């Protein structure tokens, strides 16, 4: 029987993003429905990743007792008020099996009684003259809603169409896992991300050789601090390449794949030599028994939308173009949740559950403010109190999981009136959104983030094996607090030093910062607010020993002549 259903909020997809948003709408008592094309929640994880080992860590034991701090190292759980419904209860494995995560999502949906309609595949999305969205399913039902929330997940493989004959390659999602098929065979893998390295690692023990064919240099997560780049758990192929054990990681420009007699696949590829004499391009061919395409996913399917509201896509047609609040830049009241949120954040964890769960919580608050007239949660206005600000700030920097996982993307905001009589703060707003909406030339605005600082150094972060320069916190390399000050056209920044355990409320012996730079921050804040705070003098805690002139001269003689002079230097 065909249904015609109206709901204020319609979520498409019951993957982790759809479940997380449904949880917040359910908790707020809102009118919502979730449409899921499969017959179970989190169905993507029933088959993906194909080799069944997750990259999301499940670190249960972290010494500190604060629940919020421990969320920093739980990369699989969805946010809820039920402390028992944590993925950490399912296994002690640091890198769990995907089957457990699939079960967890079904348990989450059931325990919270989320309003999900399974077996409802969305066929088309349009909009009527009243600006209601019209969502038609392949079953012939129609749903109308005011607010559309798209948790589509990975909708289809991202296929490099510039390669002639790409259809001859087997997709990551379709690869045969029977190792007997690959014994002593030659395997080429298109791609340079985790799916390529995961596949190469799986085959490396039986294949004659495995060649990863990446069109650009490989980025390692240990160097970029982006969890979507190649992770150490998948990089055995690098060892074997460098030790000349047949396997290899290459950067050719693949132009063509063709099938030869006997079913052998031949690639035509190129390497550029701009420094050659003369400069030129080397053109080669190489034969493989199997070629596997591991080139990622798209997160939106434009064909499911009416052309008037189809989202604009960016970055190789992978992500939708969104406002700073994850609303379609083209179509008001259409929002993207889940991995698609990474279109606004390509440095932190928005691609992953441990990142987008916080984005979704923030979006749920923005939706409450926009559509339900419920103000974004924050403190009640009160006169400026330095001790309260410091207690709140050090606690947030030391235990907040949202700021930690979405470094440089989510921020806390404190707004202080000119006369210091009204102070309010808001937590976990998108940094860009806060800069667009909350700056006021007649008020002091402080924005708090955690950020890395390796971009200030002229070398790889893998060379860092000690704290950053404690005398210059603006040269902090690892994750550290950053406070931005705005008033009128003025903008200033203050950086704290980095900390081994990313805590700034503990002494060094307990894993806290080498030096808190507390006195320098108070003096900086006093200059910004003109608050007549009592200025503090630097304290000598006995940690940092100054060099003599002779020691400094010897170091410069031994090191500086062989090094460039970047903005900041690493510890020696």
Which properties best describe this structure?
572 residues, alpha/beta, FAD/NAD(P)-binding domain, 3 domains, seven-stranded mixed sheet, five-stranded parallel sheet, 12 helices, 24 strands, globular
Layout: helices, strands, pairs:
Elements: E1 4-12, H1 16-27, E2 32-36, H2 67-71, H3 98-111, E3 116-118, E4 122-127, E5 133-137, E6 142-150, E7 156-157, E8 170-171, E9 186-190, H4 194-203, E10 209-213, H5 221-224, H6 236-242, E11 248-250, E12 253-259, E13 265-273, E14 280-288, E15 290-293, E16 297-298, E17 313-314, E18 319-320, E19 334-336, H7 353-372, H8 386-399, H9 401-405, E20 410-417, E21 423-430, H10 431-437, E22 443-451, E23 480-487, E24 490-495, H11 518-529, H12 549-559
Parallel strand pairs: 1-2, 1-6, 2-3, 6-19, 8-15, 9-10, 9-15, 10-11
Antiparallel strand pairs: 4-5, 5-6, 7-16, 12-13, 13-14, 17-18, 20-21, 20-22, 22-23, 23-24
Walk me through what this model shows.
With 572 residues, the protein is an alpha/beta fold. It has three domains: 4-156 and 297-372, FAD/NAD(P)-binding domain (3-Layer(bba) Sandwich), CATH 3.50.50; 166-293, 3-Layer(bba) Sandwich (FAD/NAD(P)-binding domain); 386-562, no CATH class. The chain has helices spanning 16-27, 67-71, 98-111, 194-203, 221-224, 236-242, 353-372, 386-399, 401-405, 431-437, 518-529, 549-559, and strands at residues 4-12, 32-36, 116-118, 122-127, 133-137, 142-150, 156-157, 170-171, 186-190, 209-213, 248-250, 253-259, 265-273, 280-288, 290-293, 297-298, 313-314, 319-320, 334-336, 410-417, 423-430, 443-451, 480-487, 490-495. Strands 1, 2, 3, 4, 5, 6 and 19 form a seven-stranded mixed β-sheet that branches. β9, α4 and β10 (209-213) form a beta-alpha-beta unit. The longest helix has 20 residues, at 353-372.
């Amino acid at each position: 029987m065909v249904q015609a259903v109206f709901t204020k909020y319609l979520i498409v997809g019951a993957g982790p993003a759809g479940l997380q948003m449904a949880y917040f709408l359910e908790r707020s008592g809102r009118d919502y429905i979730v449409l899921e094309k499969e017959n179970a929640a989190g169905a993507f994880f029933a088959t993906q990743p194909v080799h069944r080992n997750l990259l999301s860590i499940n670190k249960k034991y972290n010494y500190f007792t604060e629940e919020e701090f421990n969320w920093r190292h739980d990369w699989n759980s969805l946010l809820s008020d039920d402390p028992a419904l944590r993925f950490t209860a399912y296994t002690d494995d640091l890198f769990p099996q995907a089957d457990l995560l699939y079960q967890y999502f079904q348990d989450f949906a059931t325990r919270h009684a989320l309003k999900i309609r399974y077996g409802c595949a969305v066929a088309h999305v349009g909009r009527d003259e009243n600006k209601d969205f019209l969502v038609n399913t392949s079953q012939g039902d129609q749903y109308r809603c005011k607010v559309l929330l798209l948790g589509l997940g990975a909708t289809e493989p991202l296929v490099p169409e510039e390669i002639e004959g790409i259809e001859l390659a087997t997709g990551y999602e379709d690869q045969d896992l029977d190792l007997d098929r690959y014994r002593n065979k030659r395997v080429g893998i298109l791609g340079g991300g985790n799916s390529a390295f995961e596949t190469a690692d799986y085959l490396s023990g039986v294949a004659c050789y495995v060649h990863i064919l990446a069109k650009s240099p490989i980025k390692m997560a240990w160097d970029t601090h982006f969890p979507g780049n190649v992770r150490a758990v998948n990089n055995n192929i690098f060892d074997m390449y460098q030790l000349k054990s047949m396997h290899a990681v290459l950067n050719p420009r693949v132009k063509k794949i063709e099938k030869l007699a006997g079913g052998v696949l031949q690639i035509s590829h190129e390497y550029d030599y701009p420094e050659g004499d003369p400069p030129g391009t080397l053109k080669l061919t190489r034969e493989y028994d199997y070629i596997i395409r591991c080139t990622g996913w798209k997160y939106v399917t434009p064909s499911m939308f009416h052309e008037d509201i189809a989202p604009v896509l960016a970055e190789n047609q992978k992500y939708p173009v969104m406002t700073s609040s994850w609303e379609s830049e083209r179509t008001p009241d259409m929002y993207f949740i889940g991995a698609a949120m990474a279109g606004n954040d390509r440095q932190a964890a928005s691609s992953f559950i441990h990142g987008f769960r916080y984005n979704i919580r923030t979006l749920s608050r923005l939706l409450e403010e926009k559509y339900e007239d419920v103000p974004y949660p924050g403190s009640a206005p009160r006169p400026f109190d330095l001790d309260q600000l410091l207690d709140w700030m050090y606690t947030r920097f030391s235990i907040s999981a949202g700021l930690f996982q979405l470094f440089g993307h989510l921020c806390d905001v404190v707004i202080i009136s000119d006369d210091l009589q009204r102070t309010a703060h808001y937590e976990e707003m998108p940094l860009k959104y806060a800069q667009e909406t909350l700056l006021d030339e007649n008020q002091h605005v402080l924005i708090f983030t955690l950020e890395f600082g390796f971009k200030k150094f002229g070398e790889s972060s893998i060379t860092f094996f000690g704290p950053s320069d404690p005398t210059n916190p603006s040269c902090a390399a690892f994750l550290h607090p950053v406070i931005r000050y705005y008033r009128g056209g003025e903008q200033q920044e203050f950086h704290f030093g980095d900390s081994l355990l990313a805590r700034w409320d503990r002494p060094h012996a307990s894993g806290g910062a080498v030096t808190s730079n507390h006195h320098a921050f108070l003096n900086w804040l006093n200059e910004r607010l003109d608050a007549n705070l009592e200025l503090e003098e630097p304290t000598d805690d006995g940690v940092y020993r100054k060099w003599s002139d002779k020691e400094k001269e010897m170091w410069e003689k031994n090191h500086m002549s062989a090094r460039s002079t970047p903005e900041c230097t690493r510890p020696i």
